[in-house]
From TrEMBL:
Gene3D superfamilies linked to this entry: Domain of unknown function (DUF427)
Pfam families in the cross-refs: NTP_transf_9
UniProt domain DUF427: residue ranges: 15-103
Organism (species): Falsirhodobacter algicola
Protein name: DUF427 domain-containing protein
Superkingdom, natural source: Bacteria
Length: 111
C-alpha cells in the first residue's frame, strides 16, 4: 500500500450518470488521492442505485481486496464500471462502505 494515501470529504453535490440514468448522487462524497494516480471520488453505498450494479468478482488492489461491479441495464452490460474495498487499511479506512466509479465509462461530476 502506498504511503501517500489521503482521503478527504469533498464539498458539493456529486452525481454519477450513464446514458441519462442517475446511478449515484450524494453530498457526502470522499476523495482518494494515492501517489501519482488521479484523484478518485467515492460515494456512500446508501447513495448508489445498487439495482443497476452486479458484483462481478474481486481483485487485489493497493487498498486491499476490492469487489468489481458491472453496470447492467435492459440493453447491455458494461464490465468494471465501479469498485469498492470492504476493509481498506490505515488512512483509507474511511472508504469502507463506499463505491468508486470508472470516470471513463460513466460520468462522475460535481453539480
Amino acid at each position: 500500500m502506498a504511503d501517500d494515501i489521503r482521503v478527504r470529504k469533498v464539498t458539493g453535490r456529486w452525481v454519477v450518470r450513464s446514458d441519462g440514468a442517475v446511478l449515484a448522487e450524494t453530498s457526502a462524497a470522499l476523495e482518494l488521492e494515492e501517489g501519482s494516480h488521479a484523484p478518485v471520488i467515492f460515494f456512500p453505498r446508501q447513495d448508489v442505485a445498487m439495482a443497476f450494479l452486479d458484483a462481478e468478482g474481486t481483485e487485489t488492489r493497493s487498498l486491499g481486496k476490492a469487489t468489481r461491479f458491472a453496470l447492467v441495464d435492459a440493453s447491455a452490460t458494461t464490465r468494471d464500471v465501479a469498485w469498492s474495498v470492504d476493509a481498506p487499511p490505515g488512512p483509507a479506512a474511511r472508504l469502507a462502505g463506499h463505491i468508486a466509479f470508472d470516470a471513463e465509462k460513466v460520468t462522475v461530476e460535481r453539480l
